[in-house]
Amino acid sequence: MSSQAVEALKLIHKQVEKVIQQIDDDDWERDSLCEGWRVQEVFAHMSSNMKEAINPTPPPETEQEPLKAEDAMEALVAPRREWTAQELLDEYAQYFESWVEWMTALQEEPTASTMVPLADLGTYPLHMMANAFAFDHYCHLYVDILAPEGPLTIEVDPGNDEMIRPGIEWMIAGMPQMQAQELAAVVTQPLEIELTGPGGGTWTVQPAGDDGLITVPPRANLGASATVTSTAHDFVSWGTKRSDWRSTCSIDGDEAYATTVLDTLNII
């Protein structure tokens, strides 16, 4: 189960509160590292996800084509673009506790193992929703908003293993499904990913099987043609194409092959 991810969200929330206490009016308008979103839009994304989980907007009267995940996120942010900072903070405060309670409930069987489709991201057990949001919150706070990659220089606690690891587990779980065809086409040999520091571990990206999906088992020494090494924190950035992997990764082995896979990888 993903109870560790629920705890991660509580820890990350404490750091969000530190930012809230120090942020000023100009900071809300600064461009974040998340393309197309200011700090305000990033925060609107975080608060709107909480609201929709607890108090979902009624579906449209006429049936519509399902939105891709990124389009659905933007659809929630768009009406909040003109909100005041206080309105966003009020929404965040209103739903946070209920949202954590909801994700805690998702860790209980039989709900935890119920498989649900998440737009174009794939199908996952419900307990992993906590991992998805732990990834989302850590990435938006520590990568998109805070320096050195983000625009705001505000002192918070550094990310630790408890904060980072659940989100890494979501990224690894999502790799086979989020880019099923693209990665199956380029992963032709085992490729080892070694993530160091808090949240780290070693996984081997394996070629697709009969189901057409690559696999990413959590172990090394599987005959990899190359090993890619970076910190787990940096993986959150380059694995989502927020930064170029070349600036933080080292490659031992077949560099040309590793380059092809890393240039293709784009986790949402």
Short structural summary:
Helices cover 48% and strands 10% of the residues. It is built from ten helices and six strands; from the N terminus they run αααααββαααβββαβα.
Describe the protein in words.
The protein is an alpha+beta fold and 268 residues long. The protein contains 10 helices and 6 strands. The protein has helices spanning 3-22, 25-28, 39-54, 69-77, 85-105, 129-145, 161-178, 180-186, 232-238, 255-264, and strands at residues 115-117, 123-125, 191-196, 201-205, 226-231, 250-253. The chain has a 4-stranded mixed sheet with strand order 4-3-5-6. Strands 1-2 form a two-stranded antiparallel ribbon. The longest helix is centred in the middle third of the chain and has 21 residues, at 85-105. The radius of gyration is 19 Å and the shape is globular. The mean pLDDT is 94.
